Amino acid sequence: MTYEFVPPIYPDETIYSYAARLHVYWAEKNHRKTAKRLFGKAPINIDQRLPLGIEHIARATGNEVDTLLQHHTFYPLFSGFVSCPIALKEAMLSKSGKNLANASSVAQAGIASLGGSRYCPLCIERDKLQYGIAYWHLSHQLQGVTCCTTHDVELVQVEQCTRKFELPPQQDESNGVIASKDALRLARLLLRFNSDFEFNIPDCREDYWGGPSELLRLKNQYRGQNVDMAVLMEAVNLLSEKVFNFRILSENVVFNLIHCTDYYCHPTKHIFLCFVLDLLSVRQPETSVNRDLHNQILERDRFKTIGYYQLGINQLRPTSREVNRSVNYVKSIARQIGVKYQKRTKFITPDIEARIIAKAKAGVHRQTIAYEEGVSVSTVELFINGVLGLSEKRRNLRKESRRKDARQSLLNTMSNLPELTRKNIKKAIYADYMWLYRHDKTWLYQTLPAARNRTKL
Ligand SMILES: [Zn+2]
After folding, report:
1. I want to staple 176 with a disulfide (CB 3.0 to 4.6 A). Which of 146, 153, 234, 367 is the partner?
2. Is there a single domain that holds both residue 273 and residue 375?
3. Per-residue DSSP letters for 140-161?
4. Total domains, the chain
5. How far, in Å, from the CA of 139 to the mean position of ligand 1?
6. Most confident range, picked from 61-75, 223-237, 386-400
7. In sequence order, which residues have a C-beta less than 8 Å from that of residue 222 and are 6 or more positions away?
8. Per residue in 311-339, pLDDT tens?
9. For residue 173, how far is its CA from the centre of ligand 1 (angstroms)?
C-alpha cells in the first residue's frame, strides 16, 4: 500500500536517509515498525550505498523503482563492475539480503574502514536552511569519497547501525577541514564514474574508460606485455597513504586489474588505480630516442665510409675495419655511390691457401683462421673439405683436446677433494664426467676411487 502524505525523497538522498526521515516524520519510536512499513520486513539491514527492498519502499512511498535505483543508490556504478548486473538489481529490489553479497561480487576486503556513514558539516547547515532537516547524501557515502565535492571540505565519518534509521547530526559547529587536492580529485573521479553509468552516456569515452591497461598504454608504461610493478606499486602506495592513511591496493589486486579482463573487485579499487595511473607522468618513449641515436650513428659511419672511398681506398675489408661496420655495410655504400670495390676472391693467393691449410692442420679454429687471413669462415671450410682427411683429423684433434681437458678436470677434482665419492664427483663436474663416460670410459673407471659398497656393514 502507498501511505498518504509521504514527503518526497530529496536530491542526492540515500534510501537509508529517506527511511530515517520518514521515521522522524511519522514520529515513530520503533525502528522495526518503520522497517516493516517501508521494506515489508523487520529487522532489515539497509546499506547507504546498496540498499535492499527498493521495490517495497517505492510502492510504499509512491516513487518509481527506477528513480530510486538510479538516482538514490550506487547501483549504476556497481552495475558497471559486477559480473551480473541483473542479479544485483534483482537482489536490491527484493527484501532478501541473501544474494546481495553474491550478486554484487564486491568483497569489502581492504576497504572496510572506508565504510560507515559520512556527512559534510557545511551541507548540514545548507540542507537545514533549504529543507528544514539535514539528511544523508548519496555522494558522500561511496567508499573512497572522503570529502564533499560541493564544499571542498573533509567528510565526518560516523558508525551507523544499519538496522536503526538515524539521521546525521542536525548540528555541527565545525566549519569543516579543507580537503586535500588529491582527495578531492579522487572523489570527483569516483562520482563521475557513477554519473556516467547513471545516465548511461555511451559517448563519454574519457581516458579512464579504457581502464588501467589503456591508461598504462597512454602513459607508455608497457615494456612488451610487462609493466614495472615496483614503480607502479610505489606510486599506488604513496597516493593511497596520502589520501586514506593506509594502502588500499595489494600488488596482487593491481596485477589482476591490469592483466585480467574478467577480474571483479570493488569499483573503488578499480577507480583508485585509474586515478593513480592518470597522475603518472608519461614515460619517455625509449625506442624512438634509441632509434634517433641509432640513425645518427649510422649517418656518421656512412660519411666516414664515403670519406675512405674518396681517398681512393677501394678495398672492403680494411674500410670495414676502419669504420667498425660489417663488410656488407661498406659494400652496400660502395654500390650506392658507384665505387668499384675490389672483390675478395682476388686476395686468395696460393700463399694464403697454403697458410689456411697449414693452420687448419694445426687445429686452429675456423673463425680464428678466417679472421687472421681476412677471409670468410665458409672459405676456410671450403679449403678444409678440399684436403682429403683433414676434416676428420681436425675432429680428432678437437676430441683429443677435449679428452685432455676432461681428464685434467677429473684429476684436479680428485686431488682437491679426495673425500668425494663417485656420485659426488659426477655431480661436481657433470659435463666432463659425462664426456669421459661416453668417450673414455675405461680410463674413467680406472681412475675413479673404488666404488663404495651400498650394503651396510
Ligand atoms: Zn558539503
Report:
1. 153
2. no
3. GTSTT--EETTTTEEPEEE---
4. 5
5. 10
6. 61-75
7. 216
8. 887 778 888 888 888 877 888 788 778 87
9. 14
**Same domain, yes or no: 331 and 429:** no
153/184 Cα distance (integer angstroms): 9
Residue type at position 15 = I
Question: What separation in angstroms does the CA of 272 have from each of 111, 186, 254, 269, 358?
Answer: 12, 7, 10, 5, 73
Q: What is the pLDDT of residue 392?
A: 83
Predicted TM-score of the model (pTM): 0.62
Distance 160 CA to ligand 1 centre (A): 19
How far is ligand 1, taken at its centre, from the CA of residue 126, in Å?
8
Residue 342, strand partner residues? 315
Among 145, 55, 128, CA closest to 96: 55
Mean pLDDT over residues 30-42, rounded? 91
DSSP designation for 178: B
Do residues 72 and 173 share a domain?
Answer: yes
Q: How far is the CA of 236 from the centre of ligand 1 (A)?
A: 28
Distance 13 CA to ligand 1 centre (A): 13
Query: How far is the C-alpha of 339 from the C-alpha of 360, rounded, in Å?
Result: 35
Distance (Å) of CA 47 to CA 51, 360, 370, 429: 5, 87, 81, 69
Whether 359 is in a domain gets the answer yes
- 183 — pLDDT class (breaks 50, 70, 90): very high
Comparing CA positions, the residue from 96, 97, 79 lying closest to residue 88 is 79
392: CB partners within 8 A, 6+ apart = none
User: Same domain for 401 and 376?
Assistant: no
For residue 420, pLDDT beyond 90: no
